[in-house]
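> agent: user asked for a holo structure of the chain below bound to adenosine-5'-triphosphate. Plan: (1) validate sequence alphabet, (2) canonicalize SMILES, (3) run complex prediction with ligand conditioning, (4) return tokens. Step 1... ok. Step 2... ok. Step 3 dispatched.
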Amino acid sequence: MAKEKTNTQKTVANTEKKSVFAFLKSRQTTTMLAIFFILFAVFLISSFISFFFNWQEDQSTLQQFFNREVIAKNLLGKVGANLSHFFIYKGFGIAAFIITYKLLYTGYAILLKKPFSKVIISWNWGLISMIWISVTLGFLPDDFAILSGVVGVEINEYLQTFIGKTGLIIALIFLFISYLIVRYKVTFDDYIENLKIKREERRLQKEAALEKQAFEASLQEPIKEEAPVSNTIIFDNKEKSTFERPLENLKPTISSFSDFSKKHVADIPVTLDEDETEDDVNIEPSLISNDVAIDIEKVEEEEHEVENLSDKLLKDFGEFDPTLELSNFRFPTFNLLRQYNESISIDPDELEANKNNIVETLKNYGIGISEIKATVGPTITLYEIVPDAGIRISKIKNLEDDIALSLAALGIRIIAPIPGKGTIGIEVPNKRPTVVSMHSAISSKKFQESQMELPIALGKTISNETFVVDLAKMPHLLMAGATGQGKSVGLNAVLTSLLYKKHPAEVKFVLVDPKKVELTLFNKIERHYLAKLPDTEEAIITDTHKVINTLNSLCIEMDNRYDLLKAAMVRNIKEYNEKFKKRKLNPNEGHQFLPYIVLVIDEFADLIMTAGKEVETPIARLAQLARAIGIHLIVATQRPSVNVITGIIKANFPSRIAFRVTSKIDSRTILDAPGADQLIGRGDMLYSAGNELIRIQCAFVDTPEVEKITDYIGSQKAYAQAYQLPEFIGEEGGTTLDNNIEDRDKLFREAAEIIITAQQGSASLLQRKLKLGYNRAGRLIDQLEAAGIVGPFEGSKARQVLISDFTSLEQLLENERNE
Ligand SMILES: Nc1ncnc2c1ncn2[C@@H]1O[C@H](COP(=O)(O)OP(=O)(O)OP(=O)(O)O)[C@@H](O)[C@H]1O
């Protein structure tokens, strides 16, 4: 009975202790404490300020604290005078104000529930600063001793006896710099970086000014408008030619020249304070009976999330910015590209002569013309003819060759009829073709304002419009043309367009150049824009064997990306990246921002001749499947013969570009239509995206210009290494199915650990985690099965994992070694 009583007493005492503790920790108490700190700080500030005006007179009152006759002048009376005397006079002088600041901060920190450790750190720094300031002020003459306080003066004098005045000054300067370095992380590097950025900004401003001048100068020059109809001339067949608009009124195409360097706002991480709500628990006295003790356990309130994790992360950190790592990256400026005189100057006599020639020739074949219209392009002029009523278009089509012969000009192409118009087009080369510069294509509004994923400014159409296409939509491009007709320039135009529009985080190139010369310049931007296999030196692939490995590696990358897309439940890379930016995908589960990958093969014929199926199969696979996951192929070849551009390749490359080729057969191979054999070369090309053929003058970008651009990018801060493609081990790296330890894949152990950790025996898990191809992952699973780590194949279900932890695995491997 007596024992029971003591127990009850103990429990009651415990409960009381707990409720006192709960009271101290309750929000009301902490709020009171916070307000106390804040008001005490206000009290001290007022008394300190007042002290500086009255301290001499109040000196005498200090000793007579309890004498009510004596009145202190301090605004806060004797208490104020004494406290100020203690902190300022006997303490740290003017630096004592830091105490008031720290008190204010403590109150504020308690109110906002900041971690206690932060408050302690803040007080530590405050104390150090106080001592430093008062010691430094100790150098002042005695009249100002009040500013440094007794502590300051004493420490100052004490230290001077050891290291002298100069020594102390040096020591104080050192302490001050150390404070800046430790507290505010000021380093020399930042300063140097700032200097560099400023210098670069000055340089860019200068360049922009020069560019503006050049632009204004170019405005003075006539003709260069991107006006589709402006260069159209209507001939009255019977009368003299009438011009819809005089050619002199044509304006230049270049329309914007601003510096497109992007600025990125850094994500600022925010520390989240935990919301600790601890409500008081009121204990009903009736619950505690005399003989039965009830120990009431405090029930923790379950926490509820108001918003899901991704919304919270988005709110706290903002959208994920893939460009953050290279946030200072500057896009190449327009002035790196050469400007040409691009005013289309066509001789009216030439127009008239061509018109007469066409009319005459057609008349000879009994074809009358009711109307003829000319559109002057950069390299050719399109004469659009409306034949007299009753003339069948097929008749003109049959006479195509004869008409071309009669007009006796190289590069005449007859389009009968012009799709969607019902007129007949005759394209005649201009005597003086105009160069379409990359500068004008890149600076065109159409390109600069395009919202495409991978915009490419290919050149200009016959109506002098900049032709911009989206590589992401193509989704792969086949390019062919006889040697010297502009293929390499075309490839450079494609790459340059992407460099002017896409940040290194958004696009990566895999460059295959068996000719070993054309793409070498891009080596300079390896760590910005190129992707390569791990452990390879050169990012630009010139060796056939490496090409096979790279293509297979891209297939692995494709499979991995498909797995990521599947896990994220999205259909394509655009949706995936958007979801990732919105922080809805967890990087810890392998998700990451996926850059587009553009594979460029400069001489495909060479590859297919040496490696045949080994190259064709992965290319066909990529071409068939890779569009959704952002891998796009650009394949160029000199020889567009059927054994190079095979049926399977052709079927998967809907977008084609043909430069001049030597025969009609070649033209049919590449475009499924004649026409490429009638081009005039030097960048004159036909673009086909399935049905219609569009004649374009390719934008001209010269090697020195590409060099300038790559230099410009290459000189900027880069990633630590090129984008790493997954490792590909060729068939020779394979193993047999039996449990032979020597033959095991070198990733066997790692694979076993992954499978055991996940307790899920699936090849796709290994593919994802180890970045492997399906074949290798499958072989690993077979080896794991042979070793008894995973169970047999169970159809659509994942295999059973037979080992539960690493210790058992270790034991199994140890036993194997001993056998
Ligand atoms: N768009 C263009 N505008 C004006 N001239 C061009 C254009 N494209 C090419 N040229 C001229 O044609 C020349 C050959 O072009 P390019 O080197 O691109 O040919 P290619 O087809 O790649 O030849 P190869 O297959 O032998 O390398 C260039 O040096 C240039 O003088």
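> agent: step 4 complete. Summary for user: Residues 224 and 252 are 3 Å apart (CA to CA). Residues 221-252+346-429 form a domain with the Threonyl-tRNA Synthetase; Chain A, domain 2 fold (CATH 3.30.980.40).
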